Amino acid sequence: MKLIFLGPPGAGKGTLAARAVDILGLPHISTGAIFRSAIEAQSPLGLKVKAIIDAGKLVDDDTTIELVKERLARDDVQKGYILDGFPRTIPQAEALAKFSAVDKVVNFDIPDSGVLERLGGRRVCRKCGHNFHMVFDKPAKDEVCDHCGGEVYTRDDDRPEAIQKRLEVYRAQTAPLIAFYRQQGLLLDVDARPKVDEVVTNFKKTLGL
Ligand code: AMP
Question: Which of 16, 51, 100, 173 has the smallest count of CB within 10 Å of its CB?
Fold first, then answer.
């Protein structure tokens, strides 16, 4: 099954994708995570995108599309995948349609108030990318990942100014994808406001699992 996870920043796409990986046994492809590891590694891609990402803006379509096209050419995704954070613009969605036929697009719906609460407390493991939350899901030991022992930190783009920018960008450039995929009959809506376990249950029900 080829799935796209759509939704505003902070809807919980990354956390839900990690759970969906266990349920469906499909690889999780997060363009944001790929960019963050490129930044950690200080690779040419990382150096190119760091300032853009820290400011809460979008990386250009050509760079992002190329990255996903290469990733989706690998063997491990031929049975399916969960694409998290891509596409984020109509041109990205049009490009994707040319190299991969998506089965369903899951739209995780949450109002801005929920986004601010979630992103404000979010922490991420620098090593394995696991998401924590300082109120809802704290690591057992401060700043240490429960899963791999890596350093748990606040993403630069989770600062308040960057969060506002990311919401603006979402509304202007990504939200139009909801109508785009609805028109194609691919969209499934899932309420992302409840706690993770409940959202996972709704997700399974919506997909008929
Ligand atoms: P995420 O982890 O999905 O919130 O992504 C973090 C950041 O990476 C975004 O705010 C963008 O700057 C960049 N990014 C991730 N995916 C894309 C995409 N599909 N197109 C453009 N920029 C992206």
Answer: 51
